[in-house]
Amino acid sequence: MKAALVNGLNKGLHKLLMIITLSFFGLMFYFSWRTEQQYIKEQLRFSNLGAFALVLFLLIILGALLFSLSYYIRKLKSRTFLFLLIFVAFSVRLIWILTINTPPATDFRAMYHGAVGILYGDWAPIQREYFYSWPYQLGFTAYESFLLSLFGEETFSIKFLNVLYGVGTVFFTYKIASLLLNEFAGRIAGIFYTFYIPAIVMTSVLTNQYIAIFFFYWAFYLLLKNGINYKWNWIFIGILLALGDIMRPLGAFILLAVSCYMFLAFLKKGRIHKGRVVKKLIGIFAVFYFVHYLVSASFIAWGITEYPLSNRNPLWKFVLGFNHETGGQYSVDDAEYVARYPLGTERNGVEQELIKERLEDKSEVVALLWKKFNNMWGIRDESIFWSMGHQKESAQDIHKVLYASERMMFLLLLFGGIAYLFLSFRVEIDKKEAFFLILILGYVLVHLLVEVQTKYRFFINPALAIIASLGFVTLFCHTKLLSDRERKEG
């Protein structure tokens, strides 16, 4: 009776997870399609119907291209394919940073100047409210400073490492999708992420996202490949998640996703194994926070900061996230207003009042969430702006092509994800696949509450490519483009 109840709960959670994720994928697809259709209509002066038909035609062509490429390269031996994948991913990204020289801007400039300051023992660049408010940014800043101490003040070394981390993420995207289904799925995921525009163009930006997601997805691979069976796996997972979080603070959210995954494992294990699941999860948390403590204590001892690597202005992202006028995006007015009050209790009180006011009208809040969802997932990706914004006048045509191409690729990703969820609905999905649905769903929900910027999509894009690849292989099998034997063998 108890086993049947647990089994029923497990199936119910899986179905709920798939339904909610499918709903969100459908909305993302709708908003992205609308953005692409409007963009084509404006740029090419098409009618609504003409723009709709062109988007549909381009999506079909892109899908056919992906299938043709995937179908022919699946005949390659694994080592040959992996070599070609790594070579192409590296070459495309290296060519980009050699061609596009993006100067540091906004947060990236603050962290770079801070890195130069640490290098020469000049603490002025890091004794700013930016680092006082968000000491967690010092993790990546110190990393940049270390690279500058080895290779000089030029930014090329940081960008070149971005290339290597990007290639590493391509590798883990390929390996994880192969692990979840088969080699064919891995190849589709790897190819897609190799050529995905934001994953390429941001390499010339001094962003902390490349190194962070490299560590995160490495940890995900270890978690899914070895689970709790490998004796010391939990230590490596905890270290990698901590290093990723020190570079870019997503650790709390990711630990929650890992906990949900382990809970699904807990439901399926026997009494002895359940105890092991709990112990390993506690171990991951312990290692994560121990590494954080060591790094924070070291930074304080070296005089880089007097605070742990934490967020000392935790309400700020929510202030922005509930700004009705900007649709949850950055607000200069909000920044100027809260800056009048000293950091700490007084500013927290002011920010609490702002949030409270913005949540009073429930109907407006619902409208805000709808708008925020569109701003986060539907509008064109600003990675092109962050990479090439300094060339705005001289590269207008390139901008247009990249913007339109990115939305088409994102639509194809979503189509694959929807196909996977729809075609797999009647079967119980594996908990490893459920982990990425939890990750995607959680990331969507978090950004309904906090500030939204399209550059924040970066972290979740490999997960979307992984889920989409499962959908394409399943779709190929259902349409008899692949036999059941080919689907299993990959």
Automatic annotation (TrEMBL):
Keyword Transferase part of the UniProt annotation: yes
Keyword entries, A-Z: Cell membrane, Glycosyltransferase, Membrane, Transferase, Transmembrane, Transmembrane helix
Topology of the protein relative to the lipid bilayer: Multi-pass membrane protein
Membrane spanning residue stretches: 12-31, 51-73, 80-99, 160-181, 193-220, 232-264, 284-304, 408-427, 434-450, 456-477
Domain Glycosyltransferase RgtA/B/C/D-like, residue spans: 146-290
Subcellular location: Cell membrane
InterPro entries the record matches: LipidA_mod_glycosyltrf_83, RgtA/B/C-like
Matches recorded under Pfam families: PMT_2
Keyword Transmembrane helix appears in the UniProt entry: yes
UniProt-recorded Gene Ontology molecular function terms: glycosyltransferase activity
Stretch forming the signal peptide: none
Full protein name: Dolichyl-phosphate-mannose-protein mannosyltransferase
UniProt organism field: Priestia endophytica DSM 13796
